[in-house]
Design brief:
mainly alpha; about 0% strand
Length: about 180
């Protein structure tokens, strides 16, 4: 099934107030949304909490979502807003970097491919990126989305998505080069 046909089916189910719509949304976007939230929030627990809030919002706004042109973009926007709300509710303090090691471990067994030191290096490097670049890199690399899917999800042009990705990757490379030269 194409993404357009899935979104069309979701819209029809939402219009009929069919609870199966949430199940299809979860099956269609759940893994990508979770990975996106994990990258933004840098914590499995926080990502799970916010993900739950996202689906509560989707359930509450189901009638409105049925009329949205780009359901994927709308839902990613809801996820982003929920993540930002989570940050606003938290007291301002810095956390230990070791809590962020799970950023690259979205898939079972992935940790075996990357050693602990590399995970720490990349996690530290990701922290320096602006939020917009980190979002695109997360979606492109960790969620394996195309630039077209990223652009639809974030409601930006494909060129903007590609630019944010390119600039973010370049910043990561520079940060990792500096780190390796310091060692």
């Amino acid at each position: 099934m194409t993404s357009d046909s899935i979104e069309k089916e979701i819209k029809e189910l939402l219009r009929d107030d069919n609870p199966k719509a949430l199940e299809i949304i979860y099956d269609y976007l759940g893994r990508k949304l979770y990975g996106y939230l994990l990258t933004i929030l840098c914590s499995e627990e926080k990502a799970e909490d916010v993900m739950q809030n996202v689906f509560v919002k989707i359930a509450e706004k189901r009638n409105r979502i049925a009329d949205v042109n780009n359901i994927t973009g709308y839902i990613f926007k809801v996820a982003r807003n929920e993540a930002m709300d989570y940050f606003r509710r938290q007291p301002k303090h810095h956390e230990d970097i070791s809590k962020y090691e799970n950023i690259l471990c979205l898939e079972e067994g992935h940790k075996n491919k990357v050693d602990e030191e590399e995970i720490r290096e990349i996690s530290k490097a990701l922290e320096i990126l602006p939020q917009k670049q980190r979002e695109v890199i997360s979606m492109k690399i960790f969620q394996d989305m195309t630039f077209e899917e990223v652009s639809r999800a974030l409601k930006i042009s494909q060129n903007t998505a590609a630019s944010r990705y390119r600039y973010g990757i370049e910043k990561l490379r520079n940060k990792l080069r500096r780190f390796k030269s310091e060692v």
